[in-house]
Amino acid sequence: xxxxxxxxxxxxxxxxTKAEAARLVDTVLNCIARGLKExxxxxxxxxxxxxxxxxxxxxxxxxxTKEVIEIKPSISCGFRASANLKEQL
Length: 89
Hints:
The protein is α+β, with helices and mostly antiparallel strands. Helix content is 45%, strand content 31%.
């Protein structure tokens, strides 16, 4: 499922227009992003937890040249599914 499919599904479930469903989906996603930025963790009961992860600088190997390269530190996002979600899968 991609974002377009999610918007369509939300629209059908709520019996609303695609535009309204898109606004709702965008709002939820923006709130999750803002929560990660501010709190570094967003827990949604019964669904799971989004976690902000700081990845330190490290050494890697270029697959083309086989040279050792320095990989810059970065920020990534992780997700840990709740027990309820795991049961549904």
